[in-house]
Structures are given as structure tokens and as C-alpha cells.
């Protein structure tokens, strides 16, 4: 979703609203964010930060990577995932979002993408999304195809699906064999305390079921508008 004007100009508008309308700054910022299509200023700023971060992160991703995008709610992990999908599409790669969290309409609203758009991000919203489903979908995919999974902890939520460890193992093997890149949006456990450490890390990934985190090759942790990228193995 493209802003109508650079973010610094939006901030100036907010300050003018504060002076002219005698309202708190946070209220003015949220109002401007709504005008730009975001529910709150925090989401707008996360979107802007993700756009800048995605260029650097995308340049570091290689074929066959298994990437974690992790953060607490509202820290921009989904926005970053969308920016990476857009970067992949603009680079001429097949770009797919597998989401168990959002409807296609919600995704299109957040990305500003219309059906039939050039370099379109493919949106898959089936309740049957799991490792086998994605591998079947991606079976003709070329190396460098970029797939985002929204989100990691939902993959085995339904009892008829294989456990999370089995699914991620299968996807890691598929990525290594084909060169497809998987990026997993991931939750962070509530126990993460930013007063103790600046960023969450692998120990803070919320894992209701057992999973070998060594299956991932890279992990990007987001907090408070900043990001930290790690090579896992």
C-alpha cells in the first residue's frame, strides 16, 4: 500500500492538527493513518519500516532458504512479509502467500493489490494448507520462488494434519531440493521482556508443539521498529 505522501510530511500534518484542533498527537497520527488506509499509526509506521528493511533482507536471501519472520503483535512481521513478496514479484519471481489467518480480501486490502495486477502476488487461503498441500501447489515452481506461510503456529492446528515438526522437516527438504524459498511468519512467546533484551531470539519462538528450529536457515526478529537478522545454520 503506497502512502499519499512521504511519512515525514504526514507527521507534519499531524502536528498541525494538534495545534489547530487541540487534540493529542497520538490521536492525530491515528486519524492520518486511517486516511492512508491503516487502522493505526503504529501499523503505518511498521509498513514504512518494513519497506526499507525488506530491500536489505531480500538481498541476503538465497535459494532454498527457510526464513523465520518473528515478533510480537504489531511489530511489523506481516508487513515485512508482504514487502518481501512484493520484492520477489518485482524481481520476476513467482510470489505466493499461503495464509491460514486472513481472507483474500483482507490480504488485498493490506497490500493494495487488485486481482489481475501485473506481477501479482498469488494468494492461497485454503483451510487445507499444510506442507503436503504447499508442495503440491509448488511442484512446478522454479528455484527462487518465494513463498510466505502465515503463520507457522497454525500449520498443525487442525488435528488431521501432520505435526509441526514433520511438516517443517518436509518443507526444508523440499526447499533444499528445489531452491524454493519459504518465509514463515511466527509468533513470539509472551514471556519475551524487552526490558531484559532488545530483541527476541530463537528461545522466544512460541512453540506449542515440538519443533527443531535448526531446520531454519535464517531468522529475522522485529521489535520497536527495528530488526535483527541471524543465520541459524
Helix and strand topology:
Layout: H1 7-21, H2 25-35, H3 41-60, E1 66-71, H4 77-90, E2 95-99, H5 104-111, E3 122-124, H6 131-138, E4 146-150, H7 164-178, E5 181-186, E6 218-223, E7 226-231
Parallel strand pairs: 1-5, 1-6, 2-3, 2-4, 4-5
Antiparallel strand pairs: 6-7
Helix pairs in contact: 1-2, 2-3, 3-4
Pfam family, one: DnaB_C
GO biological process, one term: DNA replication
GO cellular component, one term: cytosol
Choose one word for the global shape.
globular
The string of secondary-structure elements, in order, is HHHEHEHEHEHEEE
Tell me the total number of β-strands.
7
Level of helix content? 25-40%
Tally of helical segments: 7
The proportion of residues in beta strands is 15-25%
What Rg do the Cα atoms give?
18 Å
Mean pLDDT over the full residue set: 90
Main sheet makeup: 7 strands, mixed
- Note the gap between the termini: 34 Å
3D structure, described in words:
The protein is an alpha/beta fold. It has seven helices and seven strands; from the N terminus they run αααβαβαβαβαβββ. The chain has a seven-stranded mixed sheet. α7 links the parallel β4 and β5. The radius of gyration is 18 Å and the shape is globular. The chain starts with 6 loop residues before the first helix and ends with a strand.
What is this entry, summarized?
The chain is α/β, with parallel strands linked by helices and 233 residues long. The protein has helices at 7-21, 25-35, 41-60, 77-90, 104-111, 131-138, 164-178, and strands at 66-71, 95-99, 122-124, 146-150, 181-186, 218-223, 226-231.
Amino acid at each position: 500500500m503506497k502512502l499519499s505522501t512521504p511519512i515525514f510530511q504526514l507527521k507534519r500534518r499531524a502536528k498541525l492538527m494538534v495545534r489547530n484542533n487541540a487534540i493529542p498527537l497520538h490521536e492525530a497520527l491515528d486519524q492520518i493513518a486511517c486516511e492512508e488506509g491503516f487502522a493505526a499509526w503504529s501499523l503505518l509506521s511498521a509498513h514504512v519500516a518494513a519497506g526499507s528493511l525488506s530491500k536489505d533482507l531480500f538481498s541476503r536471501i538465497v535459494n532454498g532458504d527457510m526464513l523465520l519472520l518473528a515478533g510480537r503483535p504489531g511489530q511489523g512481521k506481516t508487513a515485512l512479509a508482504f514487502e518481501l513478496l512484493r520484492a520477489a514479484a518485482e524481481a520476476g519471481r513467482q510470489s505466493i502467500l499461503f495464509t491460514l489467518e486472513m481472507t483474500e480480501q483482507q490480504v488485498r486490502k493490506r497490500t493494495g493489490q487488485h486481482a489481475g495486477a501485473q506481477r501479482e502476488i498469488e494468494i492461497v487461503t485454503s483451510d487445507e494448507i499444510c506442507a503436503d498441500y504447499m508442495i503440491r501447489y509448488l511442484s512446478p515452481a522454479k528455484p527462487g520462488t518465494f513463498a510466505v506461510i502465515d503463520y507457522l503456529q497454525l500449520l498443525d492446528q487442525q488435528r488431521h494434519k501432520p505435526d509441526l515438526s514433520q511438516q517443517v522437516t518436509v518443507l526444508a527438504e523440499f526447499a533444499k531440493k528445489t531452491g524454493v524459498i519459504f518465509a514463515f511468519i511466527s509468533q513470539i512467546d509472551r514471556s519475551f521482556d524487552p526490558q531484559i533484551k532488545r530483541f527476541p531470539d530463537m528461545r522466544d519462538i512460541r512453540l506449542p508443539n515440538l519443533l527443531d528450529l535448526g531446520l531454519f536457515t535464517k531468522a529475522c526478529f522485529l521489535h520497536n521498529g527495528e530488526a535483527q537478522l541471524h543465520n541459524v545454520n
